[in-house]
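Lab notebook, bench 4. The sequencing result for the construct came back, and we need a structural model before the next group meeting so we can plan mutations. Quick request posted to the team channel:

Model the 3D structure of this chain.
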Amino acid sequence: MSEKKRTILLVDNDKASLVEMASTLTEAGFRIFSASSLSEAMELAAKKEPSIIIAEIAVPDLDGLELQKVYFERFVFRLTPFIFLSSVNDPAIIVRGLENGAFDVLVKPVHPAVLKAKVRRWLEIREQIQLASYGGSFEGNQFARVLNFCRRRKLNGLLVVTSSTETVHLKLIKGEAEELASDPALMDRIYGMSRGRFWIMLQVSRELAGKVIRSVSALGSAQQRGFLSSLKVGGKLYEIQTELLVKPEPRIQSSVFIKGQLLDNQDDPIDLPITINDLESKILRLHRKVEAKVRKEGEARGKKAVREIIDGSLFETGFDAFEAGDYPKAIAVWSEALRKKPTSQFLTIHIQLARQRLGDTANQRAEKQGKIGL
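Done. Here's the predicted structure in token form:
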């Protein structure tokens, strides 16, 4: 993609700064849109997806962090990099921006050569990422549900995981993330994220975006699209999965699971023609609607559902033990599952992680006892 086709959204209430940055990046061949307020920035972003957003992090009447929050709440499937600007060289402000998911934080005034180099670098990374097919959020160890989803679907592509402190890219081959098997420390780091967001990038043509889908056969090219999330209600964990289905009739289906067992689903028919952008909005609307329903009815429904579930999968049983900190039981249950499916890399890396956590716990106990002995 040529730089002339790349769109940069600049957001700053300092007119002189806007003009200077716009001039620098226009000379570099980028297409520039400028905004001086959050509402104006969102209006421009709705008209055309920017390749990157450069925004002032915090000044009166303009909060870049709030813009980032509102932007991703509205455009869930986008992966737009944010670069924040700060008028003050304050480490606390820079750390705050990075901890809230910024790709970078630059202190003004930014040298034109540095600005162009930073933008080009982040756009190179951005261009490696294709359209998001699935997106969602997770908390703590619930990332295992995301991996399990990829494994069940045997997905090929890229899994992007981002938290307040880092972004990790995992290559998916038939649903397996091989980097995790060879790097237990990386696995432990991801599971240590208190909360985060994720996107699953499949081999989907970027040209699909904005196109009008007029037939069921054409709809099939965009079939692997959806949204995943987990909710804790009444002490129970619900998994909500919303996705596009083509057969027997085109529809969006939102399903609710607990311990891997289907509790309920809801369908929303699709009327053709429809654009990819409208399709994604429709998926997200149904997902939010079902989330609200689960929150409202979850506690009563959950108690009934749990009574009906006699036995979940071995992975789910092991995962419950893992969450409770009972690592020996998790290892035993997952090992039993591995004997039934010895080629499962997914189970192997979870057993490795549980053993690592068990070792860490034992070391902590030994250190504590040593201190008491002293």
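The chain has four domains: 3-127, 131-204, 208-309, 314-373.
Will bring this to the meeting.
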